[in-house]
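Moderator note: this is an archived Q&A kept for reference. The question asked for a predicted structure of one protein chain; the sequence and the answer are reproduced below.
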Amino acid sequence: MRGFTLLEVMVSLAIMAGVVLTVISAVNYHLAIASRDREETIAILLARAKMEDLDIPDNGKDARKTEGTFGPEWPDYSWKTETATTAVPGFRSVTVTVSWSGDRRTLSLEKYQANKD
């Protein structure tokens, strides 16, 4: 009766351990990417919604900031807006910055509006 030697079993186990380790690290990497993409998608959608909700009056000031959170639905996400004049007369820029993960991650959207008369 002939079987596997101890050396053959150990080599096959080492190969299998390498394959399993590679597969597990690849799965973890892709799960981290999917999680980051999900967070960024939520931030983009929240920023777009905040950009549409903003009706910033033109009060003649060069810059103005407002901020808040998206709670209670999204308490980990906060927002900040900045309004500034542009080099083009009659227009201003509005920037909405969304932060999450304790302000470690941020995303900004900017649009240009005609000044209201």
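Archived answer notes: The longest strand covers residues 74-85.
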